[in-house]
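Lecture 7, part B: from sequences to assemblies.

Below are the input chains for today's worked example.
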Amino acid sequence: MSVDLGNDASAGETGIRKLDRVVIRFAGDSGDGMQLTGDRFTSEAAAFGNDLATLPNFPAEIRAPQGTLPGVSSFQLHFADYDILTPGDRPDVLVAMNPAALKANVGDLPAGGILIVNTDEFTKRNLTKVGYDANPLEGDSLEAFSVHEVAMATLTQGALTETGLGKKDAERCKNMFALGLLSWMYHRPTEGTERFLREKFAKNTAIAEANVLAFRAGWNYGETTEAFAVTYEVAPAKLASGTYRQITGNTALAYGIVAAGQRSGLPVLLGTYPITPASDILHELSKHKNFGVTTLQAEDEIAGIGAALGASYGGALGMTTTSGPGIALKSETIGLAVMTELPLVIIDVQRGGPSTGLPTKTEQADLLQAMFGRNGEAPVPIVAPRSPADCFAVLIDAVRIALTYRTPVLVLSDGAIANGSEPWLIPDVTTLPDLSVTFATEPNAPDGSGEFWPYLRDPQTLARPWAVPGTPGLQHRIGGLEKQDGRGSISYDGDNHDKMVRLRAAKIAGITVPDVEVDDPSGDATVLALGWGSTFGPIGAAARRVRAGGGSIATAHLRHLNPLPANLGEVLRRYQRVVIPEMNLGQLAMILRATYLVDAISYTKVAGLPFKAEELQGVFTDIIEGGAL
Amino acid sequence: MTTIDLGLPSIGGLDGVPTTDDKQSAKDYKSDQEVRWCPGCGDYAVLAAVQSFMPTLGLKRENIVFVSGIGCSSRFPYYMDTYGVHSIHGRAPAFATGLAVSRPDLSVWVVTGDGDALSIGGNHLIHSLRRNVNLKILLFNNRIYGLTKGQYSPTSETGKITKSTPMGSLDNPFNPVSLALGAEATFVARAIDSDRKQLTEVLGAAAAHRGTALVEIYQNCPIFNDGAFDVLKEAGERERRIIPLRHGQPIRFGARDGSAGSGDEGGEYGVTRDPNTGSLQVRKVTEVGESALVVHDASLADPSYAFALSRLTDTTLAHTVTGVFRSVDRSTYDDAARAQVQEAKDSRPADLQALINGKDTWTVAG
Ligand code: SF4
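Predicted structure of the full complex, as structure tokens:
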């Protein structure tokens, strides 16, 4: 297998170079359609069979001022002929649709990188807007790059003169021109994009055809002009056999919810309130009501989770989705779910915080909020996906825990996972876990009184019975007040409270989770890099680099943050040094230090973007060589 | 069961809830929990009225759920031998909405108070009224915070001296009926804890209504706000202050004046409409004549009339309108949500594999 180091595998003689991987970044104004362009190129790469990973990056404003630095939107795509782990540290190719996009992104382009610029936007006014005194295309500041100046707007308009489309509408198709040009450069299949455009603009065939024409014009421009001496090929990846599709984290979570409903046989109720970056889960789910899914857009975050818990009480699968600020609002209801011991799944798609923070940027700083952000001793199981495709299995695992142990479960995704995409080896749905549940139907009082005791626990799981309204003879009352052990009546007795607090804690601590697996190919590593959530890609890619350079490092990744895997303490003690990279200020490190008294090294960054593999490679190498951070 | 026939479509509030022929009594609805309200609390009377009323519905007890928030009245579910949830402060309508949407076979009742429903839970209240979820909301209004020991509430009269307002409260109170009508509630009524007969009638009409029914119940808190509604209970005062509504009948109240020859329904006062402003006012019947009285119509689609009625009540209780202000038919959120799911099920098979495969797959050979 190739390693994640370079991209120049071999050079052909016919002007076609074979590469093992490429990172392309499309950058433009938020109104330029860069997300769509990136999405389409991703689909082409997926259809071609490459492995891929994507990183959309866009402003929080829907339409930030045109042509300005804050208005720049970009989409980075990494595709390869082997299994890759991240969207790539730095682009090999940067497409800059305007001066702002150039200025905001050119710093990431390494020397020798390809820069494709839409020259039409490089007017004096636009240059001044972003603080360019002189046109960078004219000086020597871009000397280090292979620069291609293309008048994309003009060429697009030219290609569309016959269509009779207005100048403005024609110019808006320039992103498809860029896509066509890049598709030509990388020998991408085109049918999918043409079909997509015709479907997307089915209501306006003139616009659909204009986009297709612009796309083809871009392709033809590459082929007929001699501006581009070489084209590139990235062969399909040799992934595990099976059927794949491309999927984003939010879509995978939505599918996981549908699948969990089907596998449990329960109706699903999603009670939620729109919030970036979680809303797409609601959008996706609302399309699948044929699976017995009800989506309830509530008046606020609190009502969203309240409705979900009410549905759970009635025997449905209650779900709620949000981001960090929403978790703050939902905390009291999560506490009620802890107290009433009802199944509930809460998805937190983390974003930059505190407060409103950075709504469209990623972060993983809600871990301690998820662990402890409630009054009283209110333990909640936490699971975290490590990548977009992993979201599906994680959601199903969260539902397993919620149903088996009658508890709210928190799923911690993040902005990078939510909007990023990668190939997903689609599971055969008949092999998914059976999530069926048994409701209580009979009185259960151990004293033979024929009463129903709602807090009599299963000795194995410590879960209480789920007795849904409508079941004769089991009428009972539950709520937020402390319960008498077993019988479940209100109890203010201190000793009983002590017992109940410990029982609730023991129930969560006793949840079965798989052991954490360690990846240490050489078997002689003395340093362990441990992560959770979306740091999986960068940690793995960095470890590959370290190993390719002859070093040894072990890696392990936690899906279960609460309870932690039973073997984790032993794993941590096996290594001389443990480093924990996190997109927060050391939250997992704090938990592990407290739990295992391990002197873990915390490496942290909260810059709104994932770690770069190169950066972590440096960190790991330093530690291996005995340096401390 | 007493209901007010408003000539509405046949689908009632209880359609879909299983019934029983077993004879039930109030005793069947008493749970084994010791009732812990203060002696003399108005909540006792309401609890007794509800426990006596429930058997008249003929429902299976296990298909009835009482959901409450936090406050004195929110202990209510513990005392009913039905399913019950004592949720969190202000959030009972949210919880009940999720339950009602997913379980059409349940009769869902929300018990709340003036602080729970109108202060911390104001948002959920207006939105459940707007959505018209099939819930019956009993709002116990004692115009004070009882459980937290006597602070003023959003229905306390301005200037109220309480523990938290030693110099008098500053804010203008809500009129819960006006608020509900402003949210375009489809069913709004008011009753008084001490008038079991009318309370039972109103509960019956609420239960029969499909959609959110808000019933405000004036409830005396003898500990922190004793006598708040006494003027509505004293003989002599009661008659000239309470304006009882009866659908289809002229709105008339006051001491019966047999000599005026006005019959059993008569009374000294009546409600008339000011032809210039359209607002309602209380007039002496002898001055305006019986034909000038407004005939109560709870089924008017436009809520303005019911709102005007609600404005006849103010915090001084010089007049208090009771009975059903408004009862109109409008599609309920829960019925509509279930219909959408059913429509989707009917039009597309639930093929999970096809869903997750999507349109663009590729295969890697082994
Ligand atoms: S404080 Fe008032 S409302 Fe609360 S139980 Fe006592 S009397 Fe009733």
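Note for the exam: Residues B 37-38, 41, 43, 72, 142, 146, 221-224 surround iron/sulfur cluster (CB under 6 Å). Keep this in mind when comparing with the next example.
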